[in-house]
Amino acid sequence: RPHILWFRRDLRLADNPALAQAAAGGQPLIPLYILDDSAGGPLGGAQRWWLHHSLAALDAALRRLGSALVLRRGPAADVLERVAEETGADTVHWNRLYDPAAIARDTALKAALTTRGITVASFNAALLFEPWTIRNQSGRPFKVFTPFWKACLAAPAPDAPLPAPPRLAPASLPAGERLDEWALRPRAPDWAAGFAPCWQPGEAGAGARLGDFLDGAVGRYKAARDRPDLAATSRLSPHLAFGEIGPRQVWHAVHHASGREPAAAPGAAQFLAEIGWREFSYHLLFHQPQMPERPLRAEFAAFPWAADGDGLAAWRRGLTGYPIVDAGMRELWQTGWMHNRVRMIAASFLVKDLLVPWQRGEAWFRETLLDADVASNAASWQWVAGCGADAAPYFRIFNPVLQGEKFDPEGHYIRRFVPELAPLPAAALHRPWAQADLARRCGVTIGRDYPAPIIDHGFARRRALAALATLKQDS
Ligand code: FAD
């Protein structure tokens, strides 16, 4: 009888343990993808664009193995039962997801399928280590990154990645829907027009990105990774978010490229540590499932946020009057991605300068990031807001002018994404309002061509610290 292979956030053929096991049995295989907006809410708009292209790439890759991807829409439980009925399948293989909504759904699903006599086989394709295996000396999960990562590096190395199966046993596939019917890409206006030149969704694109990075930028990664004006990071994040490449593949490729000893190569070691932050975020989420909604530090539930609707709107549109923040927000809108340093600056501005609750920023990132990831996004927002595990102390408030001067010293990044400021010399780019006459001589009128700051950072900083002080008095 046929087996169903249910693809989820593992849109790849290599190092896909569910696929490897299903293919090894030799039974006819039904590769299935279900668009299920009921579990964990619908995907954000940017990720729907990516999903379209990634599914097309996966289908093409499966066709090369003599199969194809079956597309169905609806609650996963209904679809799986229907497909099993239509095909007589008696086993479903999937790779595990580790976020609370998916865990709840999959647990219920497994029980329902088992009572119908359908076997479920599940695997880990998403993490280096199962979240329950990395614990501190008292047997509890880590709350701080550095000892967590040390424990990971001391654990037995993750298994070597599995090869893609050379071919799949022929199966008579049930009817599926057409990808275009799902209308995952925007129609008019096509706000995703800027994505295609930057990205190649799919497993081949992921492999090419990793290869290019390990052949080039990894050497200077440690020194240059904080510079948004340099292409110094891997940009693997959307590929990892969709599982077009897995962390085990990255781990072993880095070891291979650095002669099996990444610790001796600072760029490689730092890069692996960032993969470690992704891992840490997932382990945190597994042990603290409230992380996407509620602060991990409970006292922050009483934080006196402001209801700054205008500020939030200006932030989203990249019109705050702080060039580095605006460049980041526009990079996000145009390319579906934002440099990590600028994510920190922009997020800090929203949460601390505007006192907008971090959950609003998290939601906007979920809608607009191609790499939106329930664990990394929530953990990072809580880190910036100062209410997360191992967070930056709340009183450390990013100064958007000094951050811009330090990390975009020539202003190339700002000029690219805020072109109306391009005529300004670098010295004036990061605080154009303070040199309004010079700006005017360059043809840029602050307040007309580019906004004046929507808030004074000095005032905002004092206000944020006062807000924090109320919390301390309360607790
Ligand atoms: P590289 O520097 O090349 O790092 C390699 C990989 O390590 C990344 O692809 C990513 O998978 C992982 N990684 C790197 N930094 C982090 C980090 N701080 N936390 C967790 N994983 C990390 N990352 C997401 O993947 N999805 C998100 O939704 C997300 N939201 C964020 C929100 C905020 C407010 C901030 C400050 C950071 C967020 N990050 C998120 C983390 C980080 O910004 C991105 O992973 C990184 O910029 C991706 O670019 P890259 O692939 O070139 O990274």
TrEMBL record:
One of its GO terms (molecular function) is deoxyribodipyrimidine photo-lyase activity. Binds 1 FAD per subunit. The record marks 305, 358, 381 as: Electron transfer via tryptophanyl radical. One of its GO terms (biological process) is photoreactive repair. Signal peptide: none annotated. Keywords: Chromophore, FAD, Flavoprotein, Lyase. It is an enzyme of class 4 (lyase). It comes from the Bacteria. Residues 1-128 form the Photolyase/cryptochrome alpha/beta domain. Pfam families: DNA_photolyase, FAD_binding_7. It catalyses: cyclobutadipyrimidine (in DNA) = 2 pyrimidine residues (in DNA). FAD binds at residues 221, 233-237, 271, 371-373. Its cofactor is FAD; (6R)-5,10-methylene-5,6,7,8-tetrahydrofolate. Its EC number is 4.1.99.3. Belongs to the DNA photolyase family. This is Deoxyribodipyrimidine photo-lyase.
